[in-house]
Amino acid sequence: MIRLSAVSKTYPDGTEVLKSLDIEVNEGEFFVLIGPSGCGKTTTVKLINRLIEPTEGEILLKGREIHTYNIHELRWNIGYVLQRIALFPHMNVAENIAVVPEMKKWDKPRIRKRVDELLEMVGMDPAAFRDRMPSELSGGQQQRVGVARALAADPDLILMDEPFSALDPISRERLQQDIQNLQREIRKTVVFVTHDMDEAMALGDRVCLMKEGRVVQVDIPQNLILHPADDFVRTFIGDRRSPWLTAVDVMADADSPRIVEERDPKKRKGPLFLRDERGTFLGRLENETLDPDGPVLSNDTKLRDAVRVFRENRTDWLPVLRGDKLIGVLSHRHIVEYLERTAHTGEVKG
Ligand SMILES: Nc1ncnc2c1ncn2[C@@H]1O[C@H](COP(=O)(O)OP(=O)(O)OP(=O)(O)O)[C@@H](O)[C@H]1O
Ligand SMILES: [Mg+2]
């Protein structure tokens, strides 16, 4: 969807802000840019919608160099949400949201329908808010209108530069949840800037950690934790292994002797987990009865949630499923051993 190749940006005063940046964002991806203040996140986002020009390098959008687009066409097809939304103060909510559709010359009924739909989407009752002025909205509501405005003309790409940083923790969490649901529904490509690691972990399909104008590591959130590229990543991320680890990281995999494919295996102590030859989970075998409906973990169950499932079900063994496939088993003991293994060395995995 977007590809930055060897992009550098040096300001006229000689400040070298980006140093040969390579970033690739896939179609439909929620891509998070994170890094310390001044590392070049905002600069990167502004390069993408051509608010600033690179000194060197190439930026492709859908395979086309961004300069080959008409600048208006480019901007209209990119939704942009800034840290502090600047709504037009003399326009009401509906007019603010309709700015790009108006420029695209959509007809009135279509615009009106779209405005109401977007207000619903960001959790604001259209009847109550459509005609309000920005000064009659709370900060969180203004931010929501800003998100609606960025989505208004159905852009292919949404750039969000610390959109929630001015909000209180509760509004922030709600908006995070909303934007995540929204992105899952509409599958837009989103580039999201933050300097909050929890926000990055919660939202990102992939997270790109930057430092001093360079990319340090790009990966799925879990891998930044499990396999940090260097000490900078480790420090930046802090110790968040335990809450973010999933059942998969610790389980015994599909070769575990607890996993069987026959209904009447040799007697073994404790439960066994039965699957068919295609790997589909059939149930838990214990005391010669098969229970197909017992508790299971899924591959993305967080370890701390897994611990709760163990406790609530008073069991020492749980199957781990990806979809309907049995991919491993997890025991209470695995978790304890894992924590013992990693607690002292700071090493993760094995
Ligand atoms: N017009 C300019 N001229 C010179 N230097 C600039 C200019 N604009 C930005 N910079 C510098 O570029 C660097 C990167 O700025 P940028 O705004 O991209 O950082 P950021 O990662 O978004 O930081 P923050 O988290 O604080 O928003 C900073 O050191 C900043 O001072
Ligand atoms: Mg910034």
Automatic annotation (TrEMBL):
Domain CBS: from-to ranges: 290-348
Q: Where is the ABC transporter domain?
A: 2-237
GO molecular function annotation: ABC-type quaternary ammonium compound transporting activity; ATP binding; ATP hydrolysis activity
The catalysed reaction is:
a quaternary ammonium(out) + ATP + H2O = a quaternary ammonium(in) + ADP + phosphate + H(+)
Mind listing the UniProt keywords for this protein, alphabetically? Answer: ATP-binding, CBS domain, Nucleotide-binding, Transport
List, alphabetically, the Pfam families matched. ABC_tran, CBS
Membrane-spanning residues where? none
Name the EC number(s): 7.6.2.9
Query: What InterPro entries is this protein classified in?
Result: AAA+_ATPase, ABC_transporter-like_ATP-bd, ABC_transporter-like_CS, CBS_dom, CBS_dom_sf, P-loop_NTPase
What is the enzyme's class at the highest EC level? translocase
Name the family the entry cites.
Belongs to the ABC transporter superfamily.
Assembly and partners are described as: The complex is composed of two ATP-binding proteins (OpuCA), two transmembrane proteins (OpuCB and OpuCD) and a solute-binding protein (OpuCC).
Task: Name it.
Answer: Carnitine transport ATP-binding protein OpuCA
Tell me the organism: Melghirimyces profundicolus
